[in-house]
Specification:
Layout (H helix, E strand, L loop, with lengths): L1 H7 L4 H30 L12 H15 L3 H12 L2 H12 L16 H11 L3 E5 L5 H13 L3 E6 L16 E5 L2 H6 L5 E6 L5 H11 L3 E9 L7 H8 L3 E6 L11 E6 L9
């Protein structure tokens, strides 16, 4: 112990610690490489990766949703269990994924990651009009539509410029969804119904994200919330919120057994809780 203490205090301390530091980095990188190799061999996804989040991260997500929705955390946990146990939704996604012409680029295994938060927010806040930009396969749209369906009120408008998008949006969930094919900024400007829940998940450039927020701003209801699925990569939503005197909060994902470091949920609202008047 005396020798180690003297080495730690000497000019050779950094050199002496190098083997230990190399070992730490090596263990981390080996674990990451193993997960990456497993994913390359087993997954078919090339974009919009799906994965589970760690148990602790899911618990933190429940507390985050509880805070921004002003609902008890036990209620939020119940919403998580609700969608995790929804066999009809799971069967629907698996069936239409397997029969799609794009099935070679999508996994059949269901992994909900931050979509748990989307679902719980809709269940807790009960928005009447949800607008999502960036439909892609339609998986996120189904999560939102499923929550609207259980709420017994509301509608989802999803916008994408790709006519081939949204192949998962079929009955009964399509009954709660309006699909718009076209430029998201132009489509938002033409909306004739106020927006209670807005989610940016389309072209992830700073310029386009900012244009969407500016386009939707005059259409937001008093108690509206604005979400960004790109807030882990840009500060566009936080800056937009600050410029309007709104509040901003962010949840960071921790994927379980996946090489991807995770994205998150950025949320802006007029009040700290996301609920008007609270």
């Amino acid at each position: 112990m005396i020798f180690r203490s003297r080495v730690a205090e000497s000019r050779f301390a950094r050199l002496a610690a190098l083997p230990f530091r190399v070992s730490q980095v090596g263990r981390h990188d080996a674990h990451l490489l193993a997960m990456s190799a497993r994913w390359l061999a087993q997954s078919k996804e090339s974009t919009n990766y799906t994965y589970d989040i760690t148990d602790r991260n899911r618990e933190y997500l429940a507390w985050w949703v509880s805070g921004v929705s002003a609902r008890p955390v036990a209620e939020v946990r119940g919403y998580f269990e609700e969608i995790l146990g929804d066999r009809d939704l799971a069967g629907h996604i698996r069936h239409y994924t397997a029969t799609s012409s794009r099935s070679r680029l999508a996994d059949l295994e269901l992994r909900w990651h931050r979509h748990l938060g989307w679902y719980a927010l809709v269940r807790a806040l009960r928005p009447e009009h949800i607008v999502e930009t960036g439909t892609d396969k339609g998986r996120g749209t189904l999560v939102l539509a499923s929550a609207v369906r259980r709420n017994g009120l509301g509608r989802v408008t999803t916008i994408d410029n790709n006519p081939a998008s949204g192949y998962l949006i079929r009955p009964p969930y399509s009954e709660f969804v309006t699909r718009i094919i076209g430029d998201s900024v132009s489509a938002i400007a033409e909306l004739d119904t106020s927006v209670d829940f807005f989610l940016h998940d389309s072209l992830h450039t700073r310029e386009h994200e900012a244009r969407e927020f500016e386009a939707v701003a005059p259409r937001l209801s008093k108690g509206a919330i604005v979400l960004s699925d790109n807030a882990h990569a840009t500060d566009v939503l936080s800056r937009w919120a600050e410029s309007r005197g709104w509040h901003f909060t962010f949840f960071q994902e921790r994927p379980a057994h996946h090489w991807y470091p995770g994205a998150g949920i950025g949320l802006a609202s007029r009040s700290p809780s996301g609920v008007a008047g609270v």
